Amino acid sequence: ALLGALWQLLTKPIYSRIHELIQGRRTVGLHTGLLATEGWQDEYGTPQEVRALGEFVATLLTTRHYRWVTYNRQLQNCLSDFFPHLPVESEEAHREAYNRVREHARYCASLSPLLVQ
Predict the structure, then answer these.
(1) Using one digit for the tens of pLDDT, what is the confidence trace for 58-96?
(2) How far apart are CA 53 and CA 47, in angstroms?
(3) Which runs of consecutive H residues, i.e. helices, occur in 24-84?
(4) Among residues 19, 30, 33, 71, which is most buried (max CB within 10 A)?
(5) In this structure, are residues 62 and 70 in contact, taking their beta carbons and an 8 Å threshold?
(6) Considering the entire predicted model, what is its pTM?
(7) Which of 82, 84, 88, 87 is CA-nearest to residue 108?
(8) 93 Cβ partners below 8 Å, 6+ apart?
């Protein structure tokens, strides 16, 4: 009994982390982030997914000549501005807002030849 209690005590943090991860992935791969009885569910990546996205963004910033190491805080503020909160009251409102953000990003990207002189 003592060994069982000790085992439960030692594995509780692992169990909690697994539970959090599962809760944050209930809508991964689904068409919508809305669950019928619980509303919007944000997605949380695994450590590998977070690392892969971080490596992608770091490479993107480096190859596009952003001084992201030197100006890290300023870049974080810029990214926060680039990614506004999206509405989550309905899938349609979320999709429409995402599409507007994407269209605006494409428009800004089309101006990039004007930035390089």
Answers:
(1) 999 999 999 999 999 999 999 999 999 999 988 899 999
(2) 10
(3) 47-63, 72-82
(4) 33
(5) no
(6) 0.65
(7) 82
(8) 87
